[in-house]
Sequence to fold (288 residues):
Amino acid sequence: MRLDFVRIFVDSTAKLFKELAGPTADVSSLTMRPSPVAGREVMAIIGLSGEAQGRVIFDMDLFTAVQLAGHMLGEPSPGMTPLVRSSIAELASMAIGRAISQINDNGTRLSMSPPTVITGSNLVSYDQCFETLVAPIHTVYGEVRVNITIQDLD
Amino acid sequence: MHSIDEVPPIAKSPLTCLIVDDSAFMRFHLRRMMDSFDGVIASEAANGSEAIREYGRLRPDIVLMDIVMPGMEGVETVKRICDADPKARVIMISSVSYKEKVAEAIAAGAKWFIPKPVTTEELRRAIENVLSSS
Fold:
């Protein structure tokens, strides 16, 4: 696990949430897990590739996603509309894009895939287990968990 | 996100603009910003291929271009647009903003680069600079 990269992802995400999603508490703790804990109703997934590889999964309750998107859009949303889905994807993309930029400027080539947003209930389905660092980000609309898996290529 | 204040016209009306981003949120957000500038007519494209087609059809005064998109990504799209029209005025707006990527975009023909999240004032300044330097 590249802990130095994980720190950049967490700091970048927390900072961006403060900018775009209203008051957000500092990330108090990181937890190492044998696999992602994502399983809430809304997940945004971004793949990482280059000199390291991995993925970042943001997961949150439907209420949190809709409220966060409403904040970004400047208007309330009635539910999980396509625009809400896109707002959550863009929030994740901006957070990881900013981190990727810092990592590249520090000398490691890393790129990201466009985000994929999945919605539903009981979203727990992984074909493989990867050691994952989980950072809870507490917003006024609820918690967003950031699951980060990143390793150097062997 | 950011409040959209009423601002005076940024150029002679009408200014035509093509917004290229795979994100519906970003197209919505940028269009709202552009609409806050008086005398702007904005069109949209959701990917590189669509952008090239719409650019050829509309020949807009300004293009706002994302980088990370499925299929043809932004830098390649800019290169193709600028190869066909060296006078194209493209402003990159991307969350991926490391030095090498910015240099790639400029080498491809982009005239300006704004890291996301973009504010109304940053966008306004970029458009004014690009219009005044061409």
